[in-house]
Design a protein that fits this description.
heterodimer; A: mainly alpha; two-stranded antiparallel ribbon; 10 helices; 76% helix; globular; B: alpha/beta; six-stranded mixed sheet; four-stranded antiparallel sheet; 6 helices
């Protein structure tokens, strides 16, 4: 059985961080406030999520699971939108990232639950929620990077895009190079994790399973599944959001419509 | 065949206009006005890069009757600053132009292998013209197209465009704030004032 952690243990774990924050504040290095807020958010958010998850796991009900998943997806959408330097007008940034995250969730988590793990019932919260959480966290970073690279790239290269359009290229042809950069940027973190996981870094989920006393080989196989699912979710979500966003940047006459973007 | 090749009818764009004029195949019309009066925006609207009201016809066909990329291949627009997105010149040409096309503009065909970052602004400007001609447009919209050229090279470009007018029946709309040049190359000049209104039309030849 795993060693249980009391609140005193949590305080002990936080103590070195608190000392560092105090030191940074004393040295006037400016990041202490943000670090402290982050540490507090971790405390509040994880306590809440622990309590809510206990409730969700106790009453096994698909509506609870789906409801909780939707809250996670909406929080991810909010986070992606918040990180954009330039936003689409009229809530389009949120809509585009929501569609991306939803497609990643359905494709990747749905496939894992129904085909790979064949969980019965498929929405069983002990499986569905942790899987979705890991997939969404990574997809959110990818979608946010991809969308940001697209809008910034198009803004900076508008003269090039319009010259390409003037030469008779279609809207999508004129932004093909920028879209390629977007996907590369968005998928670099996951490509890096795929390449180094297990060698340089031991993934959190695998560590958790090993700490909980599971066979490292089972933990390794779970981790492989998770990595592939994260890769799928990330690539699918970015592809969907970046493609839809690149269409939103042009109108029916293949005109670049930067008036649909606004600087934050 | 219709008498007018390009017809611009009541074009209103972003607070400018309305502008109307017609242009025969093989003819060249100049548009003169101070900077900021809407000359560039007019060309951008004709080529359908900016939203606008009013209609533009080419041989009695409305621009909206065909996909925008097709329209832009028939009505080519040369911006005052040409843009380049590949490392080498050749990447911007689906088909390499004929050798005499280069020499008619004082360029060498080897320039295709050059890196774009090594080109002078004058070379870029002339290559941009060659690049636009690859689509065999019927109309050429020129925006201050000789701004970066010395007088000798500017004359080469002027001669090249005159040759395209007479040999390929190309119609040209030439925007410039160099009245001397417009007097040389155009058969008519439209004088544009702030707000994009045309206040005078002058017949040159």
């Amino acid at each position: 059985m795993i060693i249980s952690l009391s609140w005193i243990d949590i305080l002990l774990a936080a103590l070195p961080l608190l000392i560092l924050i105090a030191l940074l504040a004393y040295m006037r290095l400016g990041v202490s406030r943000q670090l402290l807020t982050g540490a507090l958010r971790t405390l509040v958010q994880l306590s809440l999520v622990g309590a809510v998850l206990t409730a969700v796991f106790e009453n096994e009900n698909p509506l609870w699971t789906i409801g909780f998943s939707m809250v996670m997806i909406c929080a991810g959408t909010y986070e992606v939108t918040r990180r954009q330097n330039r936003k689409f007008l009229a809530g389009w940034s949120a809509a585009l990232s929501l569609i991306g995250l939803l497609s990643a969730a359905v494709l990747s988590t749905g496939y894992a639950l129904m085909v790979v793990l064949d969980v019965d019932p498929w929405w069983k919260p002990q499986y569905a929620i942790p899987l979705l959480g890991m997939i969404l966290g990574n997809t959110m970073n990818g979608v946010s990077l991809g969308l940001n690279t697209l809008t910034n790239g198009v803004w900076q290269q508008r003269a090039v895009i319009e010259n390409r359009l003037a030469l008779g290229q279609s809207a999508q042809e004129s932004v093909r190079d920028i879209k390629r950069d977007c996907l590369r940027n968005a998928l670099t973190p996951i490509m890096n994790s795929l390449a180094v996981c297990g060698v340089v870094s031991l993934p959190g989920m695998m560590t958790g399973q090993i700490l909980a006393g599971n066979d490292p080989q089972v933990a390794a196989r779970y981790q492989m599944m998770i990595m592939y699912l994260i890769g799928t979710g990330c690539a699918a979500g970015c592809l969907v959001t970046v493609s839809l966003a690149s269409h939103r940047l042009f109108d029916k006459r293949d005109r670049l419509r930067l008036d649909r973007l606004v600087l934050k | 065949m219709s008498t007018n090749q390009l017809i611009v009818k009541n074009l209103v764009y972003g607070g400018f206009g309305p502008v109307s004029f017609g242009l025969h195949a093989g003819d060249c019309i100049g548009i003169f006005g101070e900077s900021g009066c809407g000359k560039t925006r007019l060309l951008r609207s004709i080529v359908d890069l900016d939203p606008h009201q009013g209609t533009v016809f080419l041989n009695d066909k409305d621009a909206l009757s065909m996909p925008a990329p097709l329209w832009r291949r028939r009505v080519a627009f040369l911006p005052s600053e040409s843009q380049w997105w590949c490392d080498r010149v050749a990447g911007h040409f689906a088909l390499p132009p004929e050798e005499n096309e280069f020499s008619s503009l004082g360029l060498k065909p080897e320039i295709l292998k050059a890196e774009v970052s090594h080109l002078s602004s004058g070379e870029k400007q002339r290559l941009a013209l060659l690049r636009a001609l690859i689509n065999y447009p019927s109309v050429l919209l020129l925006d201050e197209v000789t701004a970066h050229l010395d007088s000798e090279r500017a004359q080469l470009t002027e001669r090249k465009i005159a040759e395209l007018q007479s040999q390929q029946n190309l119609a040209v709309v030439w925007v410039s704030h160099n009245l001397e040049q417009l007097n040389r190359v155009c058969s008519r000049i439209l004088y544009m004032e702030q707000g994009g209104t045309i206040v005078k039309e002058e017949i040159i030849k």
